[in-house]
């Protein structure tokens, strides 16, 4: 595929990109990776990564359209951790894993940094622009018309683009500075001692992990220790109407360019007047979720045995869970998606690591045929994830275009009332059923694209 082709292109030959953030391997690059081993199957894919990405996309579609009951499905209005709150950090986690699997081997093979940076930067710019197209105007109900005076700058795809750009830059430009013996995969790694094998991913790229820790600590200190303007509450300022994230985004973006319907806006006491759940300030914290996934990708590359990989994933899970408990019990930092609090970062990191383990064991270790068959729909979604997400966003915004007499009687309302009448469901249950049907519809679309070997990429 030439660089001059449109940002949405189709291919019948390849099995698709490694993922939405992958870089294609140049033909002149040899297969040896300085000791790094590839966990890929013969078709060039990693089933666990595809399935995990597909699950997050399916959940993302479902929670975007589900009703408000039961409450644990939708985003927590402020503090708390609901199903919808797990989706975004899990997808960012998988993005980090994909960055490792696509960029690290190329860097080790001495592919020019400028070439890698150009491809990553181009893809992130396209992804950011696609986010503006699908979510920039729709946040104020004007799609397909865009009033630039109220254009929402940040959104889901914009956050993904920025986080991927930052972590990819660390991978591309920060040198490898191994502590101790050089890391290697294959036979050499398997002969090492147990502890040295498990520490190999940490010791191979210490500057990367130091960068991730520095971002986590700096973001946490700024969020918890900075006084928000005109806020007289004691530190930390983490109330809906009193937090540094909202004031920072208002200063940088402007109130008219932020999300107009945050979950905390409906509070009777302490309502938030300007709060973007994908704002610039909290995107800094979201970058840490990508770093956590980056570590998972590195251990998949460097550790040769299933046991070592699972132990490392288990250590990541236990570490994130322990830090969550410490922050909650002793530092009193609540889990909050809107502010992307440190405890939210670690809690969702633990859940993401657990998700990967729960997929990896039956799929890669046991190689269960039944599980593999059951997960196939998520593979379809995972291999066309951005396409499915963008398609769902556009379709949901176009449904109100078709109506009978009045815009209130549009297709969306017709489908909802049909479910309520035919299945005798209450309104909230009908909305959940419609959201589930929406997920099934896009799974079928992804399956059709997969069967036809069409893989649309950014």
From TrEMBL:
Pfam families named in the record: HGSNAT_cat (PF07786)
InterPro entries tied to this protein: HGSNAT_cat
Keywords: Membrane, Transmembrane, Transmembrane helix
Chain segments annotated as transmembrane: 86-106, 127-145, 157-177, 198-226, 280-303, 310-331, 343-366
Stretches the record annotates as Disordered: 1-20
Domain Heparan-alpha-glucosaminide N-acetyltransferase catalytic: residue ranges: 45-170
The keyword Methyltransferase appears for this protein: no
Protein name: Heparan-alpha-glucosaminide N-acetyltransferase catalytic domain-containing protein
């Amino acid at each position: 595929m030439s660089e001059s082709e449109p940002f949405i292109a189709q291919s019948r030959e390849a099995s698709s990109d490694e993922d939405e953030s992958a870089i294609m391997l140049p033909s002149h690059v040899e297969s040896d990776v300085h000791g790094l081993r590839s966990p890929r199957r013969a078709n060039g894919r990693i089933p666990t990564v595809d399935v995990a990405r597909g699950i997050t996309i399916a959940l993302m579609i479902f929670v975007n359209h589900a009703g408000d009951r039961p409450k644990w499905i939708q985003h927590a209005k402020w503090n708390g951790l609901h199903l919808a709150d797990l989706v975004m950090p899990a997808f960012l986690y998988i993005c980090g894993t994909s960055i490792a699997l696509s960029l690290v081997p190329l860097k080790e093979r001495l592919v020019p940094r400028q070439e890698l940076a150009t491809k990553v930067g181009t893809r992130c710019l396209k992804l950011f622009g696609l986010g503006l197209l699908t979510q920039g105007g729709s946040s104020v109900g004007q799609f397909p018309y865009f009033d630039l005076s109220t254009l929402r700058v940040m959104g889901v795809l914009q956050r993904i683009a920025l986080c991927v750009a930052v972590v990819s830059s660390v991978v591309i430009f920060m040198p490898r500075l191994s502590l101790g013996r050089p890391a290697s995969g294959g036979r050499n790694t398997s002969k090492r001692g147990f502890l040295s094998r498990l520490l190999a991913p940490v010791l191979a790229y210490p500057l990367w992990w130091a960068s991730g820790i520095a971002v986590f600590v700096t973001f946490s200190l700024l969020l918890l220790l900075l006084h928000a303007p005109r806020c007289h509450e004691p530190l930390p300022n983490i109330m809906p109407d009193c937090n540094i994230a909202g004031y920072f985004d208002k200063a940088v973006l402007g109130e008219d360019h932020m999300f107009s319907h945050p979950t905390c806006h409906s509070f009777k006491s302490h309502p938030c007047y300007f709060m973007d759940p994908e704002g610039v300030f909290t995107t800094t914290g979201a970058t840490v979720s990508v770093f956590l996934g980056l570590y998972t990708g590195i251990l998949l590359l460097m550790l040769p045995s299933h046991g070592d990989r699972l132990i490392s994933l288990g250590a990541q899970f236990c570490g994130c869970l322990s830090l969550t408990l410490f922050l909650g019990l002793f530092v009193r930092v609540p889990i909050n998606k809107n502010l992307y609090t440190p405890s939210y970062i670690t809690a969702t990191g633990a859940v993401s690591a657990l998700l990967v383990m729960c997929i990896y064991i039956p799929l890669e270790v046991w190689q269960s045929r039944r599980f593999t068959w059951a997960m196939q729909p998520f593979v379809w979604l995972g291999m066309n994830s951005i396409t499915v997400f963008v398609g769902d966003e556009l379709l949901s915004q176009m449904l109100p275009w078709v109506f009978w007499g009045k815009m209130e009687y549009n297709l969306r309302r017709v489908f909802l009332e049909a479910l309520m009448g035919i299945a005798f469901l209450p309104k909230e249950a009908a909305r959940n059923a419609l959201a589930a049907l929406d997920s099934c519809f896009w799974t079928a679309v992804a399956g059709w694209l997969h069967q036809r070997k069409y893989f649309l990429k950014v």
